[in-house]
Amino acid sequence: MARGRLNSGSKAEAELPKAKINSQSLQKVAKLLTYIKPYRGKFIAGLLFLFISSLVGLAFPAILGALIDAAQDKYKYSFLPHSITLIGITGMVLLFGQAFISFFRIVWFVQVAEKSLADIRRDTYFKLITLPMNFFANRRVGELNSRISADLSQIQDTLTTTIAEMVRQLVIMIGSVVLLAIVSIKLTLAVLAILPFLIAFAVVFGRFIRNLSRQAQDKLAESNTIIEETLQGIANVKAFVNESFEANRYNKILRDVVNIAVRGAKFRGVFASFIVFCLFGTFVGVIWYGSVLVHNHEMYFGDLTTFIMYSIFVGAAMGSFPDLYANLQKAVGASERVLEILDEKGEDVSINAIDNVVKQKIYGNLAFNNVVFAYPSRSELTVLKDISFTADAGQRVAIVGPSGSGKSTMAALILQFYHPQSGSIYFDGLDADEYALTDIRNQVAIVPQDVLLFGGTILENIAYGKLGASKEEIVAAAKKANADQFITSFPEDYDTIVGERGVKLSGGQRQRIAIARALLKNPAILILDEATSSLDSESERLVQEALEVLMKGRTSIIIAHRLSTIREADKIIVLEKGNIIETGNHQELIANEQGLYRYLSQLQFETAQS
Ligand SMILES: Nc1ncnc2c1ncn2[C@@H]1O[C@H](COP(=O)(O)OP(=O)(O)OP(=O)(O)O)[C@@H](O)[C@H]1O
């Protein structure tokens, strides 16, 4: 019956919203069910075995009744042997047969569910990572991740248990009602007159209680967000001595959780007491009426036992439907959400690495032609307004400008993370749209401001630039990137684990790893997003040296924060509020007394001196 969880603990899938089950939603689910297709043989066999084992289960009340009657030398069923022992043996044989069949149906259902779910998971993950950047800009990634895993678990549960349980309970319920009528039509009518009303009441009241429990769960989820956020930003909490502020915030929300849970508990108490009273009242009534029939010799005692067992079957089956139906609704909702992702249009990247190899070589000539761009998530703010510039193969072009002027956005456009609203980007004189997306990304490398290292060894982290690179190639790249020395100073050398659970590397060391990665990738065009935080002078020298090696022979776009590092650039583009306001080399720009470049240079020079 409605087992609304009213304590504030919550399972992930308990929070999943339910969807309406109608022809439209079922059509969508059917699309997801195509994932079962490769395993349909096992699935159908499992359903068949389930059907058989449920039918066999229906025989037991009759056999138990027959055993009890046989004890009094009464044999009602002609198809059963007229001997207590033989009836007992028949029961045992059926039981064994049922156990045997159940084993296979459970194994097959789990196999089908696991395999098809793995396929859905693989496709969803691949679709997710090939979705355009804009998809991620509008969503909280953590939320997306937990939502998808909860949705997929719900679908998995439904495939492994809910569908099987529904079929089983349906067979048992229909079978039991038929068999009840055969045993005693009078008693059957008495039971059927009461049970549906009781169950309808339980469903309606149960739903009300579930709503209350959902409110408690939502509040609890809100409180968990506080924990998550504060733990992620623990350094901020400590630095601002805001521990008591956070503790109070958390405490307040916890009090709300308790209030809602306690209010719900009162309703739950009323509900449970009423149901227990009515349900057991019904059974007491049935047994009373049955005893009267037995007493008047209108019914055997064994029949009464059989009858009571079938009534319990019917009650349990009816009671299980609301939960099973709710599970099905959640699964439909979950399927719809997973399908939404699967139906999104991903970028043109193939799951087979072989399809992504470079088909059209880029030599490094880059041009922006009247590029206008606004982020799709903030379309009212034009970030780049009519940007035009060229970078010839092998040139170094620096982009400078105040914070928020659009420098990183230009890098994102070169990497084709977004597309300009108007204007074009050209590689070797050809519009970017004429290249395969992977061709561009394979031949452009970025050394970002903040280098993210994956959990794994240093070797694997460098190899990310060229999967399948040999150890010699990796070490050679690390040497050129001035990284070999610090790597070999670790006891585990290139096998040192870095990332969240491994050794923490300094900013300069991480940058040199990123440079080694980029060297290994050997791109035609290089984007350097210079770190804003300055390194100590030794580290700075090592990084700068490595960058010199990296930039040699390639087009380099340097997003510069420290103007001292770009004096040698062939061209400097000064950006302000999305417009190019000056272009030239260092000498030319510094000569412009009213220019922004000269002003910014002086500002940095004075700051450095002071
Ligand atoms: N993903 C995004 N979605 C919406 N707006 C964005 C996004 N990324 C950046 N912006 C906005 O675009 C503008 C330009 O940002 P951008 O990061 O390109 O500047 P920047 O010159 O690189 O700044 P900084 O020197 O601080 O890194 C800013 O107003 C910023 O708020």
TrEMBL record:
Keywords: ATP-binding, Membrane, Nucleotide-binding, Transmembrane, Transmembrane helix. The chain crosses the membrane at residues 43-64, 84-108, 166-183, 189-209, 270-289, 301-321. It is found in: Cell membrane. The keyword Chloroplast does not apply. Its main location: membrane. It is a multi-pass membrane protein. Gene3D superfamilies: ABC transporter type 1, transmembrane domain (1.20.1560.10), P-loop containing nucleotide triphosphate hydrolases (3.40.50.300). Residues 366-602 form the ABC transporter domain. Residues 44-330 form the ABC transmembrane type-1 domain. InterPro entries: AAA+_ATPase (IPR003593), ABC1_TM_dom (IPR011527), ABC1_TM_sf (IPR036640), ABC_transporter-like_ATP-bd (IPR003439), ABC_transporter-like_CS (IPR017871), P-loop_NTPase (IPR027417), Type_1_exporter (IPR039421). SUPFAM superfamilies: ABC transporter transmembrane region, P-loop containing nucleoside triphosphate hydrolases. It comes from the Bacteria. This is ABC transporter transmembrane domain-containing protein.
